[in-house]
Design goal:
Number of helices: 27
CATH topology of the largest domain: Metallo-beta-lactamase, Chain A
Radius of gyration: 29 Å
Largest sheet: 7 strands, mixed
CATH architecture of the largest domain: 4-Layer Sandwich
CATH class of the largest domain: Alpha Beta
Number of domains: 5
Shape: globular
CATH superfamily of the largest domain: Ribonuclease Z/Hydroxyacylglutathione hydrolase-like
Strand content: 15-25%
Length: 757
């Protein structure tokens, strides 16, 4: 069976190389060369060459598959980019409603258009009662799905979606009475409704995630999402091998381990995967479970390595772009770590105890060993994709993993009992809900522990990960005893981690301080750090797939900050404050200063106030000029003036670290700048945060000349407004400013030394 493993692994390796390393134009030549090499080796008829032959043909097939798929999908989508035309398609799921618009996935049909999957956007009431399988016709503007906010974006491609369609006319909906292809989607929707009916409101989002992989409601609770992420517990709400194992275990518990139950398990496992959305982790689990269930039927022995490599190849055959899915990468990395290290780690940890105690602690030891094994290959991916490491995930798993199986099985049993007798189903759901609350309590408790999750940035974390691997490898191949092989590298890894964190913390506390203009896309977030004090001005961003609060919070935590003393909001527009609630979840904020009686066009005031009250943050409404005093951070806060429209009436601030002065004007216009200069003599400043992201209506020549700064930072990202404008850039250059931009330079850090340093 390892022949299949070699071929499948080579195929998958070729797909990953084609996606991340190689130009599309080179793939056909590489495929041909490798196929020729395989054919030449085949003529040698030597048994020891079989592995090389299979690898050569596997690589050739991978390159060819990627090339053909790209030609038939993304290149066709590129040709339609920007076109407005009539489209027809079949709905693949239920309509998702948001504030002011709706979205649904459809498969394009008819002549003149490639048969690709697309996301259709329209007004909230446009879809009426449309359901999966219905046909829709409309005129829509198409754009490619591999570009988002001016950057390459492969998340949609990994989900087999290649076009984005924005409806330009009313939709014509043709209902379809029966479409068996949408049966899994319908069943998933019905189960989700049943969960909402049976389970208490505080547990239903969690149960839908656990049972169906439906995290749409789960992500609405920022506190729960953050706690699950920090505690390393997010894997339980991503349908994977654990959930498939629960399902198979439940069926075999009811029906026994027979040939008939194995066949039924196969059918139900694959139907469950379809109902749960066919995520890469779910498909991987189903393939591996299929190998496990069918091996005895054919009197063969199951080989996990073969089933894992076959699962990866199978997913990539149908959609090579799935290699970019973070879910796929984490799922296969976790399973690879489990297969390689779980058993040896279990034996090693058991060796730390006497035989009697090892038997008593068998379950927690196995859980801890499995958690550590999974982390071997997932930690680098976590650093790469999320900039964080969940250090305490083994503890979370030991405390809570036992309850997950009961919640999963309890959820489906509750739904089944609810069909027979609704009160009985509600009773079962009520009992299960207490276990859910226990899991949530564990997640919140572990995530609240200092350093439960390490947020990282820069080169030090990469060096640390490499060091940990080297230490583990040296210990594994050394002649040390079992106990020392575990304790010594673990202790050295913890020591080096502590040194790394200490060095980072000291780096951002040395000198006079650091001013950071954090890259949050088209928005603004400025952090001023001095000693143990931190002041943040604004926290918002638009036209970005990332939450500004999460970006700012991760950055501050990576800098070793454990709280924010003062958060200042210049005004209440989304690009300056839509990340506030997430920042408050990530870090304690002692005081929030916001202008009084300014327009709330984006409707964020109530959300911000409620979040501040939830976290015990003091709110100060600024209606007149005030002083800012926070350790070595001083300054003046200027209340919004009377001139300008809603967006332009901003709180402005002049913040000082020693003799270094920074002016922040928010989205103030030239008229407000003029009003500021008339009221306050500002001169000999060093830094200007360019107003309104570089709009031509801000940063007047009078302001630039009067304040006399030499550095200008523009907080800007992808946008449709033309920011920063050519006119503003030229004006800044004319006045001798050194210009930095977050869209080009990323987060801009200005480090200030003490006078005696």
């Amino acid at each position: 069976m390892r022949k299949l493993a070699i071929t499948a692994f080579a195929f998958s390796l070729a797909v990953f190389c084609a996606h991340y390393l190689l130009p599309l134009s080179a793939l056909l030549w590489l495929a041909a060369a490798l196929a020729l090499l395989g054919a030449l080796l085949l003529t040698r008829k030597q048994k020891w060459l079989l592995g090389l032959i299979l690898a050569a043909f596997g690589l050739a097939a991978g390159f060819l598959c990627y090339f053909v798929h790209a030609q038939g999908t993304i290149l066709k989508a590129v040709n339609l980019d920007g076109e407005t035309c009539e489209i027809r398609g079949r709905l693949l799921g239920y309509v998702q409603n948001y504030d002011g618009y709706s979205r649904v996935e459809l498969s394009l049909e008819g002549d003149g258009l490639p048969h690709l999957n697309a996301l259709l956007y329209a007004d909230s009431d446009a879809f009426a009662d449309a359901k999966p399988g219905d046909r829709i016709t409309c005129t829509a503007k198409l754009r490619r799905a591999d570009q988002r906010y001016g950057e390459n974006y492969d998340r949609y491609l990994s989900r087999d979606v290649y076009l984005i369609a924005n409806a330009r006319t009313d939709l014509e909906i043709c209902p379809v009475s029966v479409d068996l292809r949408t049966l899994p989607v319908v069943v998933s929707h019905l189960l989700a409704e049943r969960v909402d009916l049976l389970f208490p409101e505080d547990t239903a989002p969690f149960m839908k995630s656990l049972m169906l992989g439906d995290r749409s409601d789960f992500y609405q609770d920022e506190g729960l999402y953050l706690a699950m992420s920090r505690s390393g517990f997010m894997h339980i709400v991503a349908v994977s091998g654990m959930h498939v194992a629960f399902l198979v275990g439940l069926i075999q518990l009811l029906l026994g381990r027979t040939r008939r139950s194995s066949i039924l398990c196969l059918i139900l496992v694959w139907f469950f995967v379809l109902v749960a959305g066919s995520s890469p982790s779910a498909v991987r689990a189903a393939v591996m479970q299929s190998f496990l269930l069918t091996a005895p039927l054919f009197q063969r022995e199951n080989d996990p390595v073969t089933s894992l490599s076959a699962a990866l190849a199978l997913i990539l055959v149908f959609n090579p772009f799935a290699c970019a899915s973070v879910s796929l990468q984490l799922s296969f990395a976790a399973m690879a770590g489990f297969l390689c290290f779980a058993e040896p780690l279990t034996a090693s940890i058991s060796g730390l105890f006497s035989e009697a105690w090892a038997e008593r602690l068998r379950a927690p030891i196995a859980t801890a060993a499995s958690s550590l094994a999974v982390m071997v290959f997932t930690v680098p991916l976590s650093v790469l994709h999320f900039g964080s490491i969940s250090i305490l995930s083994p503890l979370t798993n030991i405390l809570g993993l036992w309850a997950v199986s009961f919640c999963f099985c309890g959820g489906y049993l509750s739904c089944l009992l609810g069909v027979v007798l609704l009160p009985l189903g509600k009773l079962a759901a009520w009992l299960t809900a207490w276990l859910v609350r226990y899991l949530v309590l564990i997640a919140h408790g572990v995530s609240s522990i200092s350093f439960a999750t390490i947020y990282v940035k820069g080169a030090l974390p990469v060096i640390w990960v490499i060091l940990v691997y080297l230490l583990a490898a040296c210990a594994a191949f050394s002649k040390l005893g079992t106990v020392k092989k575990i304790i010594l590298p673990l202790a050295l890894s913890c020591l080096s981690l502590a040194l790394m964190l200490g060095a980072t913390r000291q780096n951002y506390r040395s000198g006079l301080g650091v001013i950071s203009v954090i890259d949050v896309g088209q928005g603004q977030c400025i952090a001023v750090m001095s000693g143990d004090r931190t002041v943040v001005i604004d926290c918002g961003g638009i036209y970005s797939s990332k939450n500004a609060g999460e970006q700012a919070g991760s950055y501050l935590l990576a800098c070793g900050r454990d709280h924010v003393d003062v958060l200042i909001l210049t005004h209440l527009h989304a690009d300056h404050c839509n990340g506030v609630s997430m920042l408050l979840e990530m870090l304690p904020v002692e005081q929030l200063i916001m202008p009084r009686d300014v327009p709330d066009d984006d409707g964020l005031r109530d959300t911000i106030v409620a979040s501040a009250e939830k976290h015990g943050t003091t709110i100060v409404y600024l209606s007149e000029d005030s002083e800012l005093n926070c350790g070595e951070i001083h300054g003046e806060l200027y209340a919004p003036g009377e001139q300008g429209n809603a967006n332009e009436r901003c709180l402005m601030a002049c913040v000082s670290l020693g003799d270094y002065d920074m002016l922040v004007t928010g989205d103030s216009s030239k008229s407000q700048e003029q009003e500021l200069l008339e009221r306050h003599p500002l001169s000999d400043l060093e830094l200007l945060i360019v107003g309104h992201h570089g709009s031509r209506y801000a940063s007047s020549g009078e302001l630039l000349g009067t304040i006399g700064a030499d550095t200008a930072v523009i907080s800007v990202g992808y946008n449709t407004y033309g920011h920063p404008t050519y006119e503003t850039l030229e004006r800044l250059r004319a006045y001798g400013y050194n210009i930095y931009r977050t869209d080009l330079n990323g987060t801009v850090e200005i480090r200030l030394r003490n006078k005696d340093g």
